[in-house]
Design goal:
The chain is of the alpha+beta class. It folds into 2 domains: 47 residues; 176 residues, Sulfite Oxidase, Chain A, domain 2, CATH 3.90.420.10. The chain contains 6 helices and 10 strands. A 5-stranded mixed sheet has the order 2-1-10-5-6. The N and C termini lie far apart (114 Å).
């Protein structure tokens, strides 16, 4: 029998004692291993950051690029930002197109077999198909930075070397046709009137109140014509008689019809062109 004064048997584990945690066990093992390492290699290793600053910046750029389209779309939803963004986009497009434009780079020309039949060449006007020009009284009034301002008759323009070319006419509405056009190079006419070709722009006004402008490099392009013929016949009223611009390096709305005035200038005075002033591209090279 056990006496009440005897000590309890400590050879058996006390059920109330808890087993050491797994993390404590692992830490003890690591400390034991470290103690066995030679002192020469037993060094404190600095903690490594989860990502370096460069990696963080790279991640930030990538994430920003991912969300940029969403941010841009969101900006378009803000009424006051819409016009600003559109104007900036058009401005950049015109800037890039102007830098890519080369006076020596010609638009494609085509054989007579590729021509769209004259009867199927679309008649596309700004306001009316015939503003009622009286051909006998018609002149092209020239002004601005020129040595010989004044009124020029069609016969004077026709006396310049005639150029005929089969080129594509592209409309901003989405259609295009290949036509045959004839006339004088605008560059030859500018030379005849003593134009200052260091000026920035050519502006034109039309009998139907349409107006347009060209940068000087486009005006001097060898395929830019003062056009008075189509398909080897005099220009018809519906297609802009007696004189129109024909510029295969530019979109259709730059090619004004029924010309009445031409000016060489450095300043557009707030008016670029009819459609440009409605929000269309100013340069629109092809």
């Amino acid at each position: 029998m056990e006496s009440q004064g005897d000590s309890p048997d400590t050879s058996k584990p006390d059920p109330t004692d808890k087993a050491p945690a797994a993390s404590e066990t692992a830490e003890s093992e690591n400390q034991a291993k470290a103690a066995l390492e030679p002192a020469s290699i037993r060094k404190i290793k600095p903690a490594q950051p989860a990502a370096t600053e460069r990696q963080f910046r790279g991640m930030s750029r990538r994430e920003l690029l991912k969300v940029a389209p969403v941010l841009a779309l969101g900006a378009f939803a803000i009424p006051w930002a819409q016009e600003w963004l559109l104007n900036k986009g058009l401005g950049f497009s015109d800037w890039a197109s102007a830098r890519l434009f080369r006076s020596g780079h010609l638009a494609p020309t085509f054989s007579d077999s590729d021509l769209t039949p004259f009867a199927k060449f679309p008649i596309n006007g700004y306001d009316v198909e015939d503003p009622g020009v009286i051909f006998e009284n018609w002149t092209l009034t020239v002004g601005g930075q020129v040595q010989k301002p004044g009124d020029y008759k069609l016969e004077q323009i026709q006396a310049l070397p005639r150029i005929r070319q089969n080129t594509r006419h592209i409309c901003v509405e989405g259609w295009d046709v290949i036509g045959r056009f004839g006339g004088a190079r605008l560059s030859d006419f500018l030379n005849m009137i003593g134009a200052d070709t260091s000026a920035r722009f050519i502006t034109v006004a039309c009998a139907d109140d349409y107006y347009e402008s060209l940068d000087m490099e486009t005006a001097l392009h060898p395929q830019t014509l003062l056009c008075y013929e189509m398909y080897d016949r005099p220009l018809t009223r519906e297609h802009g008689a007696p004189l129109r611009l024909q510029i295969p390096a530019k979109i259709g709305y730059k090619q004004a019809k029924y010309l009445t005035d031409l000016k060489v200038t450095n300043v557009l005075g707030g008016k670029v062109g009819y459609w440009e002033d409605q929000g269309y591209s100013e340069f629109y090279g092809l």
